[in-house]
Structure formats: structure tokens, C-alpha cells
Amino acid sequence: MRGSQRKESSITTTQSPQRAVRVRGAARSSQPRGPALFKGVSARSPEVEIREQPNVSEERSPNKNPARRLKQLAAQIRVCTKCPLCHSRTIAVPGEGDPDAEFMIIGEGPGKDEDKTGHPFVGSAGRYLDHVLEGTGIQRSDFFITNIVKCRPPANRTPKGNEIETCITNYLMEQIELIDPHLVLLLGSVAVKTVLSRKSVEEVRGKVIEWEGRRYLATYHPAARFYREDLGAKIAADFGLLKRELKRIQSR
Ligand code: URA
């Protein structure tokens, strides 16, 4: 069982004191783990506290059954009204994949097709994602795929800071902790800025980024390829690196 030897701790923001996201995998790296994964929820922020969490009840102990807790989260996401994006969405898109997946993909947010179906990356960007994944021999089913925000922003605009903050603190952070992936692929600048607090994809692509005890690769959003042909070669190179990394991880 992957999580059995792990040291567990909890993350609590003072903004929502009842909510405790338990951190799995903290013992995996010598680097400090914590909520600095996300912009605005930095470990350096006085609003965040990391503490050991003794006596966690079954109810608040999602790690004991990540699959069940992921389902609960998905159900909450589908009826979520915590940010204004709930008014413009048709169907929220919690994300999908094997709860025990070793790898995770995080995009920006649902587009038109995802909003209609409730599934991530099923439109043209998804088809391009499948195409580049195909070249690597990796299946979609090897990943848990989700987005920074779970509801489509009106006219596909970039999600706003408050929407991102609400969505990641309520859902994405916990999804990552529950899945506890060995590697996370970030697609596009919104995912890179939010998760790694870096300015651009260009700054981080082409190498494995170790950040707060997790390993990340970043590349351009598949949709960017539609209006910038020059990105095709870079995206192909990034997926080549992804393939090598996944093989390396799987052969351990
Ligand atoms: N773009 C994204 O970022 N996510 C999706 O699910 C679809 C398109």
C-alpha cells in the first residue's frame, strides 16, 4: 500500500479552520512539504500553519480511502457554488482517472466540450493531448486528469485569482494529496503560475522541477499549439522528456 509508510501531517489555512488537508508523501523527499504548492497559500504566509494531526477521525481521514474521498470531492464539485463560475457553468468537471494513478495531469479549466460533458480534455485540446500522449506510448488511463478550476469560465476567459484560490484550496490541493502522484504534468501558464509560483512555462519547461516534495514537468497548454505552430516542436520535446521520466519511475 503506497501510503502505509508515510508520515502524515495536516495543512490548515486560518481562512477555513475546519478544513484540514492531510499531506501524504511528506516522507518521500527531504525537501519540506507544505501548502507552498500554490500561489497565495504559501508556507511563508502567516495565514498558513503546518502541524501534525493526531486523532483524526475516520470521517476526516480521507487517506484511509482515497477513492471514496475523491468520489465525495467530485460530488461536492458538481454542486459547488463557492465562486462565481458556478453561474456560468453547465456541468462542473471534477477530473477523472485511477485514484491510484502514479501520474497526474493538471490543465487550466474546462472548455466548451468539457462543460457540456463533465469530462476533462474531451474537446480539441484533449484530442491534441491524446495525439502527443500517443507518440509517447503512454495512455490517458495512466493519469488522473484534472484542472486548476473545475468550472468553465465564461467565453473561456482565464480564471480569476479568487476563482483559482477558491477552487484549489477546496478541491485541487486535496485531490493531489489523495492521489499522491510520483509526477505531475502541468499544462499551460495558469497551471504553472498557480502550482509552481513561476512566471511562465518557458521558465520551467524541459526539466523536472522538484517543488515542495513533489516532482513536476511543465509544458504549454495543448490549445496554445492551435495559434502558435512553433510550439509543436517544444511540446513534442516536453512529451519526450515525460516519456523518459515515466519509464524511469516505472522501472524503479
Ligand atoms: N483545457 C483545459 O485546460 N482543460 C480541459 O479540461 C479542457 C481544455
Helical content (DSSP H or I, runs of 4+): 25-40%
* Biggest beta sheet summary: 5 strands, mixed
The CATH class is identified as Alpha Beta
Shape: globular
- Annotated CATH homologous superfamily: Uracil-DNA glycosylase-like domain
Strand content: 5-15%
Number of strands: 8
Bound molecules: uracil
Separate helix tally: 9
Topology (elements, then pairings):
Elements: E1 9-13, E2 21-23, E3 48-51, H1 66-78, H2 85-88, E4 103-107, H3 112-117, H4 124-136, E5 143-147, H5 161-179, E6 183-187, H6 189-196, H7 201-204, E7 209-211, E8 214-219, H8 224-227, H9 231-250
Parallel strand pairs: 4-5, 4-6, 6-8
Antiparallel strand pairs: 1-2, 1-3, 7-8
Helix pairs in contact: 1-5, 4-9
Bound molecules: uracil.
Residues 107-111, 114, 120-121, 123, 125-126, 147 line the site of uracil.
Describe the structure.
The protein has about 250 residues and is of the alpha/beta class. It has one domain: Uracil-DNA Glycosylase, subunit E (3-Layer(aba) Sandwich), CATH 3.40.470. It is built from 9 helices and 8 strands. It has helices at about 65-80, 85-90, 110-115, 125-135, 160-180, 190-195, 200-205, 225, 230-250; strands at about 10-15, 20-25, 50, 105, 145, 185, 210, 215-220. It has a 5-stranded mixed β-sheet with strand order 5-4-6-8-7, sandwiched between helices. Strands 2-1-3 form a 3-stranded antiparallel β-sheet. The radius of gyration is 17 Å and the shape is globular. The chain binds uracil. Uracil (URA) binds next to helix 4.
